[in-house]
Amino acid sequence: MSTSAVEGTPERDVVVQVTGLRKRFGPVEVLKGVDLTVLHGEVMCIIGPSGSGKSTLLRSMNHLEEIDGGRVELDGELIGYRMRGHRYVTLREKQLAAQRARMGMVFQSFNLFPHMTVMQNITESPTGVLKVPAAEAKSRALALLDRVGLADKANNYPRQLSGGQQQRVAIARALAMQPRVMLFDEPTSALDPELVGEVLDVMKGLAKDGLTMVVVTHEMGFAREVADSLLFMDGGVVVERGNPRDVLLNPQKQRTKDFLSKVL
Ligand code: ADP
Ligand code: MG
Q: Fewer CB atoms inside 10 Å of the end CB: C or N, the chain?
């Protein structure tokens, strides 16, 4: 990390910057001012009890949720809004779609299109949104399928695949958009235990290749082994953050200790 010639201007390659993010559902504030910074090539894991706001945080980051305060920036660009004077105005759907294309999202529940083959699932957005020529989209999809260990499944339908295979297709589909960052929301939580490893292995490979990733997970082994940084959330705030080994082995806050004593 270096500092540019311009005094005080950090030259670190910040990909995602979340500042003072607030989100409420009706009267309930579920994000109460969240700050985080994701650097290029960083793997950030987020842990925390159910209901602590982890999914809402990821969904707010690519504007699947309107936010009530703070801001999200991707490569320095405001996500979801533009400024009109001092007011935030929500972007149009087309602009939102363009921004979302730069953030790959992988959900717990795969969300593949059931009526499309694996190949069609992966090429749909690159051809439709990015206007990549069909032949090129197809050859890229095959390379991605190879990367997630499913080169022989291109012509299968999702229902013909195991959960672990479906989730690996979902990862390939997100990667096909060449996102700046991948957001994973408990990608292995819906899987039978024996299928978790194959998905985590793919994610480890992506991390090793330098992909920028934010991963909400209950897989503490993955967090300890792969993450560069770990955030513990509870009650809509980041309670503790740091190097994963420090946070997991030597938590400073009582709430972190209580949570870890239940899951480790
Ligand atoms: P986590 O992913 O950490 O389990 P969530 O972000 O899903 O937590 O949820 C945080 C809180 O927000 C929970 O209390 C949840 O019930 C509430 N919540 C999430 N989505 C909605 C919604 N669409 N409408 C109302 N409440 C919601
Ligand atoms: Mg969740």
A: N
SS3 30: strand
Alpha-carbon distance 4 to 182, whole Å? 28
Residue to mutate (ligand 1; options 22, 30, 218; most atoms within 8 A of CB): 30
Token pair, residue 141, equals 């999809």
Q: What are phi and psi of 131, to 5 degrees?
A: 60, 35
Intervals of the chain under pLDDT 70: 1-12
Q: Is the CB of 50 under 6 A from ligand 1?
A: yes
Structure-block tokens of residue 193? 């235990």
Asked if 206 and 199 count as a contact pair (C-beta separation under 8 A), the reply is no
Q: What is the pLDDT of residues 183-232, one digit of tens each?
A: 999 999 999 999 999 999 999 999 999 999 999 999 999 999 999 999 99
Smallest CA separation from ligand 1 atom 23, residue: 25
Picking from 146, 141, 246, 147, the residue whose alpha carbon sits closest to that of residue 204 is 147
pTM above 0.85, yes or no: yes
Q: Measure 59 CA to ligand 2 centroid, in angstroms.
A: 10
